[in-house]
Task: structure prediction
Amino acid sequence: MPEAVHVGSGKVRELYALDDERLLLVASDRISTFDVVLPTEIPDKGRVLTGLSGFWFTRTKEIVPNHLLALRDDGRSTECRRLEMLPIECVVRGYITGSGWKDYRETGHVCGHRLPEGLQESDRLPEAIFTPATKAQTGHDENIAREAAAELVGRERFEEVEAAALELYTFATAHAEARGIILADTKFEFGVDGEGRLVLGDEALTPDSSRFWRADEYAPGGPQPSFDKQFVRDYCETLGWDKTYPGSELPEDVVTGTRARYVEAFERLTEISFDDYLSDPEVVLR
Result:
């Protein structure tokens, strides 16, 4: 890409500058567990993330504008608008699981929300809640109270972000449930454009940013089978690994099983063949 200047790397994505107003976001096939990028890649994982994000960006732009300008023919590269990103992760939870479950067991609260007593792990909440987190430069993001998040971004902007995130979650939940998938929780990232408008950026409603569960296997009281990288985490937990760099190579069955889960999530949510996406990435934008 001679026209692009590399400006940064993440666990999964490479970021390039195209000009003063446009960036190129390239999703690799890297996978991380416990904040360590593993040496084994998952084929087509980056294309699933890019295609699903494009699908959701197109269908939610009336809720909140997003950064998408175009998808490139490789199926993993997104041309997008430059934004000033907000310094919080915007998490919406419809079910009690993950770090929310841990906080609930310890305090009965999640990010300042007092939840009903007696919930089991993976129970559906009475209503979806907005639970912001810090953006950690290293290690894990940390859940924070709504008031702390409002101090970071300003009260008016916080209320705008909360409303947009909850509306996005409500829209996506209905779409997923109609296709036999539970959206347990998801993480959004928002930025502000040059005119001060709130804009959805990064990725949206993918297996890396969301917990997607099979509705026909849902059974509260413990962890749920999912379409995300939990399959890889579960394998890594069997190794006696200390969860520090470097991670272990993944065996072929874990690689193929993980790819299958990502592709199935793509196909069920978009109702588009993944092969059709590979031949024509813009099919997800129509």
Summary: The mean pLDDT is 95.
